[in-house]
Automatic annotation (TrEMBL):
The lineage of its organism: Eukaryota, Metazoa, Chordata, Craniata, Vertebrata. Belongs to the NDUFAF7 family. It is found in: Mitochondrion. One of its GO terms (molecular function) is protein-arginine omega-N symmetric methyltransferase activity. Keywords: Methyltransferase, Mitochondrion, Transferase, Transit peptide. GO terms for cellular component: mitochondrion. Its EC number is 2.1.1.320. One of its GO terms (biological process) is mitochondrial respiratory chain complex I assembly. This is Protein arginine methyltransferase NDUFAF7. It is an enzyme of class 2 (transferase). Its main location: mitochondrion. Residues 22-72 are annotated as: Disordered. InterPro entries: NDUFAF7, NDUFAF7_sf, SAM-dependent_MTases_sf.
Length: 475
């Protein structure tokens, strides 16, 4: 028996002797120039000097000055749009600001730029090392085996970036083609960015896709280089039902958040407004009274003085939990995050450096740490959850050390050898990505406990452990 699909023979079969090495120049921050905030924080509010927004909306008088000079023309367009909106309606929530800056149909960061990679604004784990994606691929194969090798499964990735992670997973599926020969596998990508979906098609299909296919829910389809059908959607609700494995890598951290501050008068929402002293710049203010957000998103037992809540993440988790409950499968989430302990984590990245979140909107990635305790709560008990555990623990449990040894043994030059070690260090070092990223999983309840165990205690059929969330067994 191979409990975690991680014996030396199977691991070698899945990954091959060396594979395709990814050798980017590693930047020191890799979207991590903001050091992890300590779990314990001072009792005082983290944003003590915020002014209170006026209760009435502004009049739309005055054109304002020229926006931030550092931003290109599209940033000027986003900022002008926001300035007009704020003058007409008054302050907006941080969630609405993020939505405009990131996904505005005409000028949003992800719709026009989406700067992933060395030449962009941040680097993700799949871009650093092929090993990361390979081990994720093995995780899904392991779960497929543990649940009885269903005759078909969909791999659904939310926000697939450049398609690098899916490409690495597909390579593992191809290496294990004989194992998957009787299984109908398909790939389903949920992507709102036209720019990124174009990059994904080149990465995964060589650009050979069919726009507006007969499947009305998908806006594009193609076939991977290894012969697996791929479909593109704009919303997870468009993905067909069925036994599915879900993947969300650095997806939830980019969803819009609401920010709240505890005051002497109770909870107030942090809003974005025009700075009256610099009319072409933005600032944070506090709502003058409670808002729908303060009334609906703050838990009665909340002990922190500053809270970030992502309702959109809660909705998506509920949909994933319902699908897994009804159709089976599993979801694996990897992201910056915490378990309900952190406070102010909202930050921006541009050109691999920290960027003022209110400066030149539309030209920088905006992100906030994922609250895994909130995701767990929003499953509403429909699924079991595992984690969060640190990235270095998950990858170690998945056999990254064994894979590194194989690659080092097959590296033929010192530069490749050094790069492999640097990539490993970036992924595993607690001061780099090792402790900043967490893995979290949703699984059907029966995956972790026999439903008939109370009635048949003599049942001796053991459940296979969940790969990655327990210590790797090499047998």
């Amino acid at each position: 028996m191979v409990p975690l699909l991680a014996s030396r023979a199977l691991l070698a079969a899945a990954l091959g002797p060396a594979g395709r090495r990814r050798l980017p120049r590693l930047h020191g921050n890799c979207r991590l120039s903001h050091p992890p905030r300590p779990v314990s924080r001072p009792a005082e509010p983290p944003l003590p000097a915020l002014p209170t927004a006026p209760a009435a909306a502004r009049s739309s008088s005055g054109a304002g000055g020229e926006p931030d000079a550092e931003g290109p023309s599209r940033a000027t367009a986003v900022l002008r749009h926001l300035l007009l909106k704020l003058r007409a309606t008054g302050p907006v929530t941080v969630a609405e600001y993020m939505r405009e800056a990131l996904t505005n149909p005409g000028q949003g960061y992800y719709t026009r730029r989406g700067g992933i990679g060395e030449s962009g604004d941040f680097v993700t784990s799949p871009e650093i090392s092929q090993v990361f994606g390979e081990l994720i691929g093995i995780w899904y194969i392991s779960e497929w085996i543990a649940t009885g090798k269903p005759k078909a499964f969909q791999l659904v990735e939310l926000g697939p970036g450049r398609g690098t992670l899916t490409d690495d997973i597909l390579r593992v599926f191809n290496q294990l083609a004989s194992l998957l020969s009787k299984c109908d596998v398909s790939i389903h990508l949920v992507e709102v960015s036209p720019k990124l979906s174009e990059i994904q098609t080149l990465m995964l299909t060589g650009g050979k896709v069919q726009p507006n296919p007969e499947e009305k829910s998908a806006y594009m389809k193609g076939v991977s280089k290894t012969g697996i059908p791929i479909f593109w959607y704009r919303d997870i609700q468009d993905v067909p039902p069925g036994y599915s494995f879900y993947l969300a890598h650095e997806f939830f951290d980019a969803l819009p958040i609401h920010k709240f501050q505890r005051t002497e008068k109770g909870w107030r929402e942090v809003l974005v407004d025009i700075d009256p002293e610099v009319p072409d710049q933005l600032r944070f203010v506090l709502s003058p009274s409670s808002t729908p957000g303060t009334q609906n998103f703050i838990q009665p037992e909340e002990a922190r003085d500053h809270v970030e809540v992502c309702p959109e993440a809660g909705v998506i988790i509920q949909r994933l939990a319902c699908r897994i409950e009804n159709d089976g499968g599993a979801a694996l989430i990897a992201d910056y995050g915490h378990d309900g302990t952190k406070t102010d984590t909202f930050r921006g990245f541009r050109n691999h450096k920290l960027h003022d979140v209110l400066s030149a909107p539309g030209t920088a990635d905006l992100t906030a740490d994922v609250d895994f305790s909130y995701l767990r709560k929003m499953t509403q008990g429909r699924t079991a959850t595992l984690g969060p555990i640190k990235q270095r623990e998950f990858l170690k449990n998945m056999g990254i050390d064994l894979r590194l040894q194989v690659l080092l043994q097959n590296s033929r030059d010192s530069a490749t050898h050094e790069q492999l070690l640097r990539s490993y260090d970036m992924l595993m070092n607690p001061k780099k990505m090792g402790d900043c990223f967490n893995f979290f999983a949703l699984l059907p309840h029966h995956r972790l406990a026999h439903p008939d165990k109370k009635h048949k205690p003599e049942s001796k059929s053991p459940l296979l452990p969940v790969a990655g969330f327990g210590e790797l067994l090499l047998k």
